[in-house]
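Justification of resources, computational component.

The compute hours requested in this renewal are based largely on the per-chain cost of generating structure records like the one below. Each record pairs the submitted sequence with a full structure-token output. That output is archived, and it is also reused by downstream analysis tasks.
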Amino acid sequence: MGAAQMPDRPLGVALIGTGFMGKCHAMAWRNVATVFGGAHPRLAVLCDATQDAAVAHAAQFGFDRATVDWQAAVASPDVDVVSITTPNGMHRPMAEAALRAGKHVWLEKPMALTLADARAMADLAAACPGQVTMLGYNYLRSPAFQAARAMVRAGEIGTPLAFRGVYDEDYSADPALPWSWRMTHQAGGLGALGDLGCHLVSQMLALMGPVDSLIGQTQIAVPQRPSDQGPRAVENEDSAMAMIRFASGAQGSFATSRVARGRKCRLQWEIHGSRGSIAFDQENMNELWVHRLGEAGFTRHLTGPDQPDFAAFCPAPGHNFGFNEQKIIEARDLLAAIAGAPHAGPDFAAGHQIERIIHAIAASNGKVMELGDA
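The structure output for this chain reads:
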């Protein structure tokens, strides 16, 4: 997509949340027009939990004004798009308020705490056809992933027969790590599935198509965590696994963990096809490994300007792509959809399908879960 598909007027942006992903959104908004052209978004208002923090981050990120009142921010007449990067329990009320105020919404994953919440959000978005929703599945924007998806769709590895995927990190591996809201159903929702596994599901669906059924199991590896009030129970899963049957008839395996020692961002998958295979690992995100029928093994493909969107950032191959660049592409796709281009997704409808899968894994406990086409 080029500048011709970008909005021809500045869109006003409200950002709610200033943590890791809030800063990523701010950098994406500030750089999207520099990279892809079009009008520079106007950074209208930033919302944080305290006025001092809001003022400081508004100055740092380049927003016009600061507030602690998120309801006023999403209702403001100079705001067209709302970026929501808050804790999970606030996603539904904020996204729904923005939609009811007539705004476009860019929401970080996971979509919601519960499957019922996700369905309600998708239904409301469907009732607002002039408004664009986007979920923050940034790994779909990697040039290497985009190239892999194009290969699969073009039939370069034949018929996909099997998918094997894992997303492991070790940020909760230490049993001395203090208890937090992320470990509760009420504020965090799902655990490793909602924080990590949903990313793997987003890529799995883009590569393999819909899931027909699955069998899953979960584990809480550290049942209690220390807190100021003494040991507190961990309510959601530290890890999860599933065996999957796709609607195409292909099979799959899925695993995710937040307690996998030594793993930092092991978003790793392989597709085995009738005429070849493709393998990828986010810890080495600038490499794609491809095997084609007749070859002895795999060939390493480095990211470069021949892969989608890389050239907009750098004209030279092998110079590497980064995490935040993915968010800039995501912002570009959101703005392009607002301007009338085909939606690259995932929107709230697609996000609900991702939620169906991770919640089915959480609920399975060894039972077959039928997903079908609903």
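The chain has nine helices and 17 strands. The longest strand covers residues 160-168.
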